[in-house]
Amino acid sequence: MPEQVGTIRIVDVHHHVGVLSLSEVRGTKVEPFADLSSRLALMDEHGIAQACLFPANSYPQAQGILDTQRQNDYIAEYRARRPDRFPAACAVVEPLHGEAAVREVRRVFEELGVNGLVFHHRFQGGPINAANMYPILDAARGYHRPIFVHVIAESQLESPWRLEELADAYPDVTFVALDAFSSPSQSQWMSYIATKHANIYFETGAMTSVGNRLAMFLARHGSDRLIYGSDCYMTPRGYAVPHPKNELLALGLARDDLERIFWRNAYRVLGLDTGGNER
Ligand SMILES: [Zn+2]
User: What is the CATH number of the domain that holds 112?
Assistant: First the structure.
């Protein structure tokens, strides 16, 4: 491993908070913030300086929009607990909530100051490009914040062509495809999509390294639109090691490329201060 890698700031843009419920996991009561110290310990253990927080996307919703608001209040408060380690957090809105979801878009940006929105459609009752997504994006586009969309390979609701439709409909909006390289075939698909949609970034959560597709993506497109993330859950812990980080560090990339992938691209997309040096 090159000597200079140890000095590169590593930001994980894909950390979920909660299990899908703040109250209960497999019968076990989970208190808010219970995973904060273990999350920081995991980050320290693997040299992760900072993380961008997402709510878990399939929380109980018996109270509808009130449950969503609780998720979003919580993620903002979690970020506020350690802004040095969590400089960014994104909110969830539910497409099935209709007008209430549109109002929540305004609330999370104007009152909570979140850095973006995150969707995981296979937990949200419809596909990425459902008609009920459009009013949400109509409301969100004016805030100029990124829209993170899971496209995990195993979900047809999250099939990447559906994200392409949104990217075409909203060329002024920045989208981040989460879990973009989650199968060998899908990794090739991402490389093709990157040629068609300048407003889509690509994130490394749940990636497979089989076929060396990440290196091939970088050879074709450079490092300007690749963002490091690990798809981290802490309750229960979702993996033993953040594999995409190890894979990226082992590819023999130049320092500039690593800087962009590990934090500069994320900072730029999230609207964070890069210290005046964009490259
Ligand atoms: Zn995720």
Answer: 3.20.20.140
